[in-house]
Amino acid sequence: EDGSLTGYNTDYLGVAECLRGHRPRVALIVGAGGAARAAVYALRGLGAVKVIIANRSLGRAQRFAEWCKSLGLDALAVSLSEAAGWAARADTVVNATPLGSEACCPGDAPPVLDGLHEGQVVFDMVYRPLETLLLKRAQEAGARAVDGLCMLVWQALYADKIWLGVEPTSELYEVARRAALDAMKG
Question: Architecture of domain 11-148 in CATH?
Fold first, then answer.
């Protein structure tokens, strides 16, 4: 009515739903773009106090870490070569890059595999393929593996809430996920 625009971001809500029930304290995030920002917002909301940002550009990771600090988080930027060591100390690992995706680098993974361990939550935002090398190794290590389709479906349900007023529920999530899986097969 007044000509102003309102923007929404449902990505962080999708991340938060995928990590529901998890109480992160220290998270390693691989990537420093928009998806990583969504992860930081969600992790902060779930109780994380420290984030380690690993990125191929250390300068970009450092700028991202400064932004995380502005949100009240303890944040550290590290090189990708240091990522596995930090993964070993983290209770949460998030891949917010296209590494491992069919479109980018199938069969590849962020350099964190040697740091995966039991009790961790490993969230790979990649959804094609559903089971990435990162998630396969996470399961083998005894970690809880969360695929990127989880985020995609939840963020879509929250977008429906904005546009249509439909409240997201676990039941709707299951229906939408099955539909997405069917669409991915065909």
Answer: 3-Layer(aba) Sandwich (3.40)
